[in-house]
């Protein structure tokens, strides 16, 4: 008799967006003709850059000719794209990177979820709270999260509170996790981690033999000089971190689908567990069996494991899409993508300035397309949701949907049109919430 993976039964329903949809539908039915402004979306809305579209068309034409037709793409991505990524996203920013450290995929969501395939089910996982929900849910599916309590917490996950007092960058946890998810610039708080923050984390991971899973899907939104876009800007990170990147928010590929994951060849797990440079006495049994340059003889290369996983479970990303992604790095492509990001960031600064002027406490919006708003007067996230919908016709996302420490906060996004963004800010300011 077959059995299902019972971990799935422990998952809370995908309550957040279903509940938003249902509340909005009910409100709209009762208020026909009321214009609703959607600042809850975490999806690109600006069109693809013309250079990207041209590259797609050209590649589609090639697929229609016998001489240039392509079948299955290479498992890890075409060399033309991996080379561009290594050059533009890393080497030109002063980080040494080889194309074979890079694995092209269809999304950072799938990669950040699938990475657990190569990690032991026994690992203790730490996540920021609040954060993109995929990390907790995928670990729960793999049986790494334990049980889900009435308090909205998984009992085997280490929650690292991200609150105004720590600028939404967590303190190092006492209970040493084996795997640490960090997401900066952050969804949903819009916070960025500084160099000093990341140095602390890399030092901690190396010392404890922990692995950092660094989600940098919003790196293109960093505007402040000195804010790292990649964990590998920090010395030693190649020995303890995997990085997820995506063309989704960088180049408007949410519907086109292309991303990549960096697993440096230096990243090796010793026989007794523990990752990164060997440090005597490190938790997790950092055994000293760390190989240089990904030598499997001296330890297990995570690059090799992830390569094995991808080659087995992924049949590559389409040629047309990879040519489109390659065009993101052309001069015209870069200009086009930059223009879209700047459009969103102008929206972000309109929201942030408007909220602050109206007297709200709000964060983010400087290095990320998200603004994190404190619900006034001790309102819960959902109470604020209902009030904003009713009084302003504005739809946002209750912070409690991103983790227990999101309660009492609210996320607005910069992905709407300029007109709707401006109108939304005016309406929120006039809603009499303060
Ligand atoms: C932090 C974070 N990582 C990854 C993703 C998903 O990226 P992709 O579209 O490449 O799957 C999102 C999407 O909202 C996100 O917020």
Structural features, described:
The protein is α/β, with parallel strands linked by helices and 434 residues long. It has two domains: 7-47 and 332-429, Aspartate Aminotransferase, domain 1 (Alpha-Beta Complex), CATH 3.90.1150; 79-327, Aspartate Aminotransferase, domain 2. Helices cover 35% and strands 13% of the residues. The protein has 13 helices and 15 strands. The protein has helices at 7-10, 15-30, 50-63, 79-90, 108-114, 134-141, 195-208, 248-251, 302-313, 319-327, 331-358, 381-392, 418-429, and strands at residues 37-38, 102-105, 125-129, 158-161, 179-183, 211-215, 241-246, 259-262, 268-269, 300-301, 362-364, 370-374, 394-395, 397-398, 409-413. It has a seven-stranded mixed β-sheet with strand order 2-8-7-6-5-3-4, with helices on both faces. A four-stranded antiparallel β-sheet has the order 11-12-15-14. The longest helix has 28 residues, at 331-358. It is globular and about 60 Å long. Pyridoxal-5'-phosphate binds at residues 42, 107-109, 132, 183, 187, 215, 217, 246, 248, 254, 259.
Instruction: Please give the largest β-sheet.
Output: 7 strands, mixed
Total of helices: 13
- Tell me the total number of β-strands: 15
CATH architecture of the largest domain: 3-Layer(aba) Sandwich
**Overall number of domains:** 2
Full CATH superfamily name of the largest domain: Type I PLP-dependent aspartate aminotransferase-like (Major domain)
Q: Can you identify the CATH class of the largest domain?
A: Alpha Beta
Radius of gyration: 22 Å
Basic shape: globular
* Distinct bound molecules: pyridoxal-5'-phosphate
Which class of secondary structure composition applies to the elements? alpha/beta
> How confident is the prediction overall: mean pLDDT?
93
């Amino acid at each position: 008799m077959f059995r299902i993976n019972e971990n799935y039964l422990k998952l809370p329903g995908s309550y957040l967006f279903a509940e938003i949809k249902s509340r909005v539908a009910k409100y709209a039915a009762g208020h026909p003709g009321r214009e609703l402004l959607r600042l809850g979306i975490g999806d690109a809305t600006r069109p693809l850059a013309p250079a990207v579209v041209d590259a797609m068309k050209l590649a589609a034409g090639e697929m229609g000719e016998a001489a240039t037709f392509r079948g299955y793409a290479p498992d890890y991505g075409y060399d033309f794209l991996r080379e561009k990524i290594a050059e533009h996203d890393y080497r030109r920013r002063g980080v040494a990177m080889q194309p074979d450290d890079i694995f092209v995929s269809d999304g950072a969501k799938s990669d950040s979820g699938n990475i657990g395939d190569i990690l032991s089910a026994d690992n203790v996982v730490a996540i920021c709270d609040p954060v993109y929900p995929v990390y907790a849910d995928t670990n729960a599916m793999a049986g790494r999260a334990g049980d889900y309590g009435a308090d909205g917490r998984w009992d085997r996950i280490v929650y690292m509170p991200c609150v105004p007092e720590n600028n939404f960058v967590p303190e190092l946890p006492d209970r040493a996790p084996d795997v640490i998810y960090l997401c900066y610039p952050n969804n949903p708080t819009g916070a960025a981690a500084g160099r000093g923050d990341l140095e602390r984390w890399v030092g901690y991971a190396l010392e404890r033999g922990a692995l950092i899973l660094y989600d940098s899907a919003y790196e293109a939104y960093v505007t402040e000089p000195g804010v790292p876009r990649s964990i590998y800007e920090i010395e030693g990170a190649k020995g303890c971190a995997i990085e997820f990147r995506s063309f989704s928010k960088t180049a408007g590929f949410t519907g086109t689908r292309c991303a990549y994951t960096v697993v440096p060849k230096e990243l090796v797990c010793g026989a007794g567990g523990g990752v990164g440079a060997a440090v005597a006495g490190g938790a997790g049994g950092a055994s000293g069996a760390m190989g240089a340059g990904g030598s499997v003889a001296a330890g297990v290369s995570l690059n090799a494991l992830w390569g094995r996983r991808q080659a087995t479970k992924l049949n590559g990303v389409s040629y047309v899409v990879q040519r489109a992604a390659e065009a993101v790095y052309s001069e015209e492509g870069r200009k086009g993508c930059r223009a879209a990001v700047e459009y969103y960031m102008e929206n972000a600064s309109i929201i942030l300035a408007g909220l602050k002027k109206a007297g709200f406490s709000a964060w983010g919006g400087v290095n990320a397309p998200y603004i994190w708003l404190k619900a006034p007067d001790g309102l819960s996230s959902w109470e604020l949701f209902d009030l904003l919908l009713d009084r302003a016709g504005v739809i946002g996302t209750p912070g409690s949907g991103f983790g227990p420490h999101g309660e009492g906060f609210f996320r607005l996004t910069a992905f709407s049109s300029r007109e709707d963004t401006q109108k939304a800010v005016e309406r929120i300011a006039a809603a009499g919430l303060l």
